[in-house]
Write a structure and sequence with these properties.
- This protein is mainly α.
- It has six helices and two strands.
- It is 54% helix and 6% strand.
- α2 packs across α3 and α4 packs across α5.
């Protein structure tokens, strides 16, 4: 299963947007995370639909935060991105008739469900302004 890095990439962009404090183009964002601007626009549209960012067209257009980082949690962004799988490990389904596989899957599913619940609970407690706040303020103060 392929690793889904959308959450970390979007968080990276959002914290940069707060520091830049002007409209940021999809091209600039794409350069920040080494991807295509179309991918950025598609992802940012999800955040716009959830009212975390706004966009303006034109010569000085781009994306802006619609809320302060202190009012957005990791859980908010996770939900806005469509709640992709938290874990890249999965359950086997090649021998679904096998009682051993069923027992293993049940045990793994229970553990993964419990871990996911704890992780999402913690996501709800972390606001974006807390992400590396000490490092970011140091970076911004360097001028």
């Amino acid at each position: 299963m392929r690793k889904d890095s959308r959450l970390s990439r979007v968080l990276h962009i959002l914290v940069h947007m707060a520091a830049i404090a002007r409209p940021v183009t999809s091209e600039e964002m794409a350069e920040m995370i080494s991807t295509n601007p179309v991918v950025v626009r598609r992802t940012m549209a999800l955040l716009r639909d959830a009212n975390y960012v706004t966009s303006t067209k034109g010569h000085h257009g781009g994306w802006l935060l619609a809320k302060p980082l202190a009012n957005i949690t990791l859980l908010d962004i996770h939900h806005a991105l469509g709640e992709s799988s938290i874990f890249t490990i999965g359950l086997s389904d090649e021998h679904s008739h096998c009682v051993i596989e069923q027992a293993v899957n049940t045990a793994l599913k229970d553990v993964m469900d419990e871990a996911k619940a704890l992780m999402l609970q913690r996501f709800g407690q972390i606001t974006l302004d807390q992400l590396g706040a000490d490092r970011i303020s140091s970076y911004l103060n360097k001028g």
